[in-house]
Structures are given as structure tokens and as C-alpha cells.
Amino acid sequence: MARSTLLFSLMCLSFLYVPSQSASAATTTAAAINPATTNFIKNSCKATTYPTVCFQSLSPYASAINKSPRQLVSTALTVSVDRAQSTKTFVAKLNKIHGLKPKEYAALKDCLEEISDSADRLSKSVRELKNMGSARGPEYSWHMSNLQTWVSAALTDESSCMDGFSGRAMDGRIKSSIRARMTNVAQVTSNALALCNHFSGKY
């Protein structure tokens, strides 16, 4: 009975998962987007490991990005924060479900800590980009180094969470649902880091 309740709860949580997107982005229509901006995003995404994911996650914000390398990086980081926070909420809820095996609970507890750290570091990277302002020279390099370090560390946290479910004897639904979400978070974070690296000398 406890296991049935666990699976039912997991299914309910899975249906609630939708990658977050701001209201303004959701209302952006193709007719309102300058084709040049769309091409800018698509061409910029070629520098990432997951260009399709990159374009799909950033194109809804085309009007805000408006061919600005700095705004492109800022948007990519914000998308990563949103996805990490959403996944953190999912893992936290899943961690409270009754009927978990000890190994499942341990893996989920570790993952919650790691995705929490990831979300925090990504949030710091967004603030660092804002604090960078119009900095130049050594000051600019210092801010950029901090930003890249935090995004890289966030990516490591996300990878650690997924590794925690490898080879463990646990419910397949739990493993697949966690890995699906963490894979998406890791991909948008990897893309954000690639865009940051690519445009680090352009603003």
C-alpha cells in the first residue's frame, strides 16, 4: 500500500512539472519578434553543447534579448536559475513522500542539497553580472571570473545529483523523473556557461 501511494504521488508531481517561463515571454508572438534577433540567438547557440535546447529556452525571450550579448547571457543564466529552483521544489516534495527506501531517501537528500547549492550559485552569477556594470580591465576580469566559477560549480552540483542515482537499486520512476529534470537543468546551465565564455570579451 505504501509503495502504491509513493508511485501515485510521484505521478502527480510529474504532471505538475513545467519548465518555468515568465509571463512576458509566454506572450511573445512570432510576429512581434525581429527575425534578426531570432537569428542572433540561433547563431549564438551554435557555441553551446546543446544548441537546440539553447534556442528553445531563449527564443521566447527574443524581444528582451534584442541582439545584446550581455542580455543573452543574463537571460540564459536566469533560465538556469528558474529551472534549478523548479527542480529543487520537485525534489523537496519527492523527499517527503512516504514509502521511500533508505537508498532512495539518501540519494534524494543528497540531490536536494546539491540542487540547492546549484540554484544558489546560479543566483550569485546573475547578481555578479549585474554588479559588473560597465567595469573594464582588471575589475571586469575579476567579476567575470567569479561568474564563470559559480556557473561551473553549479554544473558540477547538478552532475553530482545525477551520479547519485547511477547504479542504485531504487524505483525506476524516481530515478527517471529525477534524471530527466536534472538533465534539463544541466543542459541549460552548460549552455549558459558556454555563452558566458563565448561573449566574455564582448561586453
TrEMBL record:
<protein>
    <recommendedName>
        <fullName>Pectinesterase inhibitor domain-containing protein</fullName>
    </recommendedName>
</protein>
<feature type="signal peptide">
    <location>
        <begin position="1"/>
        <end position="25"/>
    </location>
</feature>
<dbReference type="InterPro" id="IPR035513">
    <property type="entry name" value="Invertase/methylesterase_inhib"/>
</dbReference>
<feature type="domain" description="Pectinesterase inhibitor">
    <location>
        <begin position="36"/>
        <end position="195"/>
    </location>
</feature>
<dbReference type="InterPro" id="IPR051955">
    <property type="entry name" value="PME_Inhibitor"/>
</dbReference>
<keyword id="KW-0732">Signal</keyword>
<dbReference type="InterPro" id="IPR006501">
    <property type="entry name" value="Pectinesterase_inhib_dom"/>
</dbReference>
<dbReference type="GO" id="GO:0046910">
    <property type="term" value="F:pectinesterase inhibitor activity"/>
</dbReference>
<dbReference type="Pfam" id="PF04043">
    <property type="entry name" value="PMEI"/>
</dbReference>
